[in-house]
Amino acid sequence: MESKRQQKVASLLQQELAAVFQRELPHLFPGLPPGIALVRVSPDLGVARVYLSVLVLGNAAAAAEKADEQLALVKDNGKAIRQALAQRIRRQLRIVPELVFFLDDSAAYAAQMDKVFGDLEIPAAPEATPDAADEAPEGRAPRPRLFAADEDE
């Protein structure tokens, strides 16, 4: 469970990293820069785990390859990204956390789970007749009536 301070720092880092990718360092990324899906900060605020989402059109193999290239590019330029981030948040935090980048695969996982659920064949439930609820199964006594109104119907 994250503390309020961790949540606030993570939110600040997410906003500012998105601004760094879009405004200050767009020349590092051919095409679209990666999006910031999630940021998790360690309890001592020294390490920030940044989950990147990369939008790539095409088949799954090409998309995975392109996402890996983007992640490698971000990791190679980690020092410049951290420096640009430090310039933006220098008034809010004393120490800029070390940034560790990961790919966010939640969209691919959700698509896979959607496919699995879509492939399931679930038989339809049998239709219940109104009299079936009143009848007792073989070998059992009928259900007792709790209210007089039940007997009138």
UniProtKB/TrEMBL annotation:
Q: Which GO terms describe its biological process?
A: maturation of SSU-rRNA
Alphabetically sorted, this entry's keywords are: Cytoplasm, Ribosome biogenesis
Q: What is its main location?
A: cytoplasm
Disordered: annotated span:
124-153
Question: What are the subcellular locations of this protein?
Answer: Cytoplasm
- Name the Pfam families for this protein: RBFA
**Which InterPro entries does the entry mention?**
KH_dom-like_a/b (IPR015946), RbfA (IPR000238), RbfA_dom_sf (IPR023799)
May I have one GO cellular component term?
Answer: cytosol
- Molecular function as annotated in GO: ribosomal small subunit binding
What this chain does, per the record?
One of several proteins that assist in the late maturation steps of the functional core of the 30S ribosomal subunit. Associates with free 30S ribosomal subunits (but not with 30S subunits that are part of 70S ribosomes or polysomes). Required for efficient processing of 16S rRNA. May interact with the 5'-terminal helix region of 16S rRNA.
Please give the family membership noted in the entry: Belongs to the RbfA family.
Q: How does it assemble?
A: Monomer. Binds 30S ribosomal subunits, but not 50S ribosomal subunits or 70S ribosomes.
Q: What is this protein called?
A: Ribosome-binding factor A
- Organism equals Hymenobacter amundsenii
